[in-house]
């Protein structure tokens, strides 16, 4: 019988029958996977806790006709407990895994897997503001999928910046000649913060003003909702950045 192993992040689960679950996972080598975990809802299950959302595991799967079957699961990163204990981490993690679930098969690459693992690890450790971790993840995930926002040259005509208008539908920062009436203006500090979130320059991100952080979060949310299929419903539950909040 064909079996295979892979490292996975659990994105979501839902019940199947009385004791089983269907587990949706982003894997390191096989893209997105949906598999049945038999008996995991029983208290005697050996690996049910290892197949909860936000968990990272080494799994062995049996290749089924329609759905694969999880045969073994060994924990690689138990991030769930620290994430669910804090509302801001929990809602940010939900938005991250929902965004990962929106990836199509061609986009579900090893780089996307590693990016998500790194983001969940940072959330669990409380290293930075949860909303900033989410914002950085969304920008990088979209960049890996080929949707990097233009943050220097005009995203429409290519004119050299700096520019002070952001339009999600046109790909990011654009010049005033290309900007439609009523387009959102952004200051230089917010554009610089967007660039730092994309690059993972956490010393700059952590030192940013509350105003710039809130403005950047709003632009990133608009950009992600425009480009990702069906949007990210979990974003409506994520708290706005708060001054001094970690």
Automatic annotation (TrEMBL):
Residues 1-79 form the DNA replication/recombination mediator RecO N-terminal domain. Keywords: DNA damage, DNA recombination, DNA repair. It comes from the Bacteria. The keyword Plastid does not apply. InterPro entries: ARFGAP/RecO, DNA_rep/recomb_RecO_N, NA-bd_OB-fold, RecO, RecO_C. Belongs to the RecO family. HAMAP family: RecO. This is DNA repair protein RecO. The gene is recO.
């Amino acid at each position: 019988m064909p079996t295979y192993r892979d490292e996975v992040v659990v994105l979501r689960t839902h019940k199947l029958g009385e004791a089983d679950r269907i587990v949706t996972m982003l894997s390191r080598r096989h893209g997105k996977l949906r598999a049945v975990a038999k008996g995991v809802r029983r208290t005697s299950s050996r690996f049910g806790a290892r197949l909860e959302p936000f968990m990272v595991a080494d799994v062995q799967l049996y290749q089924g006709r329609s759905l694969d079957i999880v045969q073994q699961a060994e924990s690689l990163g138990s991030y769930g407990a620290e994430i669910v204990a804090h509302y801001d981490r929990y809602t940010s993690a939900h938005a991250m895994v929902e965004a990962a679930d929106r990836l199509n098969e061609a986009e579900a690459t090893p780089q996307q897997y590693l990016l998500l693992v790194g983001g969940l690890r940072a959330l669990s450790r409380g290293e930075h503001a949860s909303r900033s971790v989410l914002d950085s993840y969304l920008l990088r995930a979209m960049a890996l999928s080929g949707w990097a926002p233009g943050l220097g040259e005009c995203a429409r005509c290519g004119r050299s910046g700096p520019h002070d208008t952001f339009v999600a539908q046109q790909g990011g920062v654009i010049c005033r000649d290309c900007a439609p009436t009523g387009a959102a203006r952004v200051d230089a500090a917010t554009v610089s913060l967007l660039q730092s979130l994309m690059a993972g320059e956490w010393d700059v991100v952590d030192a940013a003003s509350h105003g710039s952080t809130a403005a950047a979060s709003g632009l990133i949310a608009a950009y992600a909702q425009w480009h990702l299929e069906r949007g990210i419903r979990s974003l409506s539950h994520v708290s706005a950045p708060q001054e001094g909040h970690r």
